[in-house]
Amino acid sequence: MPIILHKQVTKTFEGQPLIIEAIVTDNDALKDVTLFYRAKGESNFRNELMNLEVNDYRFEIPSEDIGVEGIEYYIEAVDSSDNRAYVPEIDPEDYPYQISYVSLSGPSAPDVLLLNPEDGSENTDGHQLIIVSLYDEEDDIDVASIKMEVDGVDVTDGLEINQDLISYVPSTDFALGSHSIKFFISDLMKNESPPMSWTFFIKEEAELKVKKPFLADAKIKGVINYESEFDAFSGKNQPENRPSDTQKPSVKLTFNKKNLMATVGIVLNKHFDPAANDVDKNRQPLDRFRFSIATPIISFKGGDHNPSFSKLTLKGARVRGTVTDLHYKGLSTQFVYGRTKQMISGFTSFSGDSSVYNKGTFSRKIIGLSTQFNYHDIVEVGVNYLQVEDDTTTLEDEVYGNFSAIPDSLQNKYTAQSNTVAGVNSRVKLFGGKTEVVSYWAASIMTEDIIDPVSRNQDVSTYNSDEGLLKNISEGTYLVEFTNRNQYFDLKGSFKRIPRLFSSLGNSSIQTDIQGLKLDGRTKLSNNQIMLILGYENTHNNLDLLDIQTVRNATYSGNMTMMKPGLPGLNLGYRFMTHKGEAVAEDTVNLSDDKSSTLTIAPTYNLRIRNVEVGLSGNLMFMNFQDDANREASFKSNSYMLAIAQTYPNKLSVNLGFGLAQNIPVSDSKTTFTLVNGKIAYALKIKNKIVKFYSGSTLVLGSKAGEGNINEIDNRKVSLNVGGQYKFSKNQFIGLDIGLVKVNDFVADPVGSKDYTEIKGKIKYKYTF
Length: 769
Description:
Blueprint: E1 3-5, E2 11-13, E3 18-25, E4 30-39, E5 46-49, E6 51-53, E7 56-61, E8 70-79, E9 84-87, E10 97-102, E11 111-116, E12 122-123, E13 130-135, E14 147-150, E15 153-154, E16 160-162, E17 165-168, E18 177-184, E19 196-202, E20 219-234, E21 245-257, E22 260-267, H1 274-280, E23 288-294, E24 298-305, E25 319-328, E26 331-341, E27 347-351, E28 354-358, E29 363-375, E30 379-391, E31 396-397, E32 401-402, H2 408-411, E33 418-430, E34 435-447, E35 459-461, H3 469-474, E36 477-485, E37 489-498, E38 514-525, E39 530-540, E40 549-562, E41 569-583, E42 593-609, E43 612-627, E44 635-647, E45 652-665, E46 671-686, E47 689-705, E48 711-729, E49 732-745, E50 756-768
């Protein structure tokens, strides 16, 4: 069972690297540690594997993925037995960690432009479509804050919002005379735009007008960024995934005119080091390019995007291609065409007299169509179709030319997949929207290898044409979610059935071979100062009975949070899990039979001492894992995390943290990881110029006793960071970050020392216009 030790990141400053770190221990072999993150306001999480660096797993979130309101994230750890652990532990996808974003450029309210009819214009046609264009540099418009009045009447409920264009179609033509429009909006940071007021006239005869130049009523805005990173190692060779330098220029432009809005953005990822550029040739491209053209009814996007159909078909995958959206009243259609993987050529590498063939990567084509109909935001029904296939015709090889010319002995190293998924989804809101039921159903066909259609081509389908429709639905792939929110409590639940054979190459995070129920109830008491949470989950695998046992998992959890202003807060959590195997065949032995209990205590206290704000927090976790089928696999695990944050009136802030994780097996020696970190930051303002400095340090110690006097694990990792940002004009700032990492491994290795030193840095420049 994985145990995650993680100090939550709560704030990130513009220009500083945003690195998520975690120490993960397990009595079993770890399979993956994955970071799920998204900009606040987005609906879909991106997922990236975290890299193990000595003792801790790390991932740096790219600056272009950080929204101006911040980031939401959670961490998942999976071991070889498919045991999963998360931080935060309870409903991480719905209640992820929150990171606030502090911009040195200064947040600004959205810009508003009336595209049609023009302010002060005189028109003879009373049938006027009102179109408003929005632009926000930070892309954090609060849709809920939008309000429009026409001739003193609130028409907000009749607005069509498509990207950054808002349109309103009056039910009747405007009468002759003067008409007024008022518009209100703010962003998610509560920056309100000044109330906008416009006037237009309807007259019987048109007066001669002077023709305006094309760009007379257009608005063009943009952001230019440049990041330059360097990374150097001493004591070991430069890892291929850590180039000695990285140059990341980026540009974003926005154009508004009439009922048209266009955006274009590009992020390049290049190197001065030729060796690093050669390595990138054999990887999926890191450059990002995207553009969009939007009108009130249709939008067209190109480049790199993350479209979403449903949780069982397309979600989270990055598509390089085109995305077309059509919106008309309650009907919306989305068409996706492009590639989720780019072609990488195969090549032969030589070392002395030997050679190794490095197989290439097929480009992966994707085509999808999704249609939804929403009736007054009460009932929504949708269907979607997705086809993903590896394209063998485009593969190139440095030696043989194309794929068909590669010898059979090398072709056998390749596999090419084809995947088709069809889905149906629905959403129903009841009791004034307090209760919502969302359902997804899907069927898939997976061809594991399309290269040899005779010997290697096998279709795996979750839809059985010999069975009736009802049986295919009840024994197929589905997910049903429901929520009920009222003044007393919130109730949320889901029931899912996802067979082993189900597969969607449009969503790699779907867990298969699982069926079960999950319930979550929450209530707030004493004027929202006490929150109680109860959870229950019951799942099992082996839906097709192909394994020798079916493992049933049950989880019972409870959580209580007490927060009263001026007093310490406390969060108490308890979770009890069981895994029980049931024999499929009578002679089955070694059935799974284990249970674990986890107690979490998290105190907090915020106080003020002589104008100094002090925040104290802690997280204590005690876990007992008992394996009744194999007593030698039982273990205990404890983790302790303490932190103190101080903010002074002169903009000085100090943060200190301590963490300790212990894994104590019954039959092996104890593994201990110790974490100590600290950070100090200071900001000042001189004649409207903002300067910020910071310095931080982290110490991670790992230890595990081995046989005799030789330790199995005995290492130390020290990290130092210094940096600062300087905003030297209203629309320009520059940032610098320099880091030093020193690793010492005290376990003797016959190959040689594992000690090394790393020096890295980043320079960032930003200009807005």
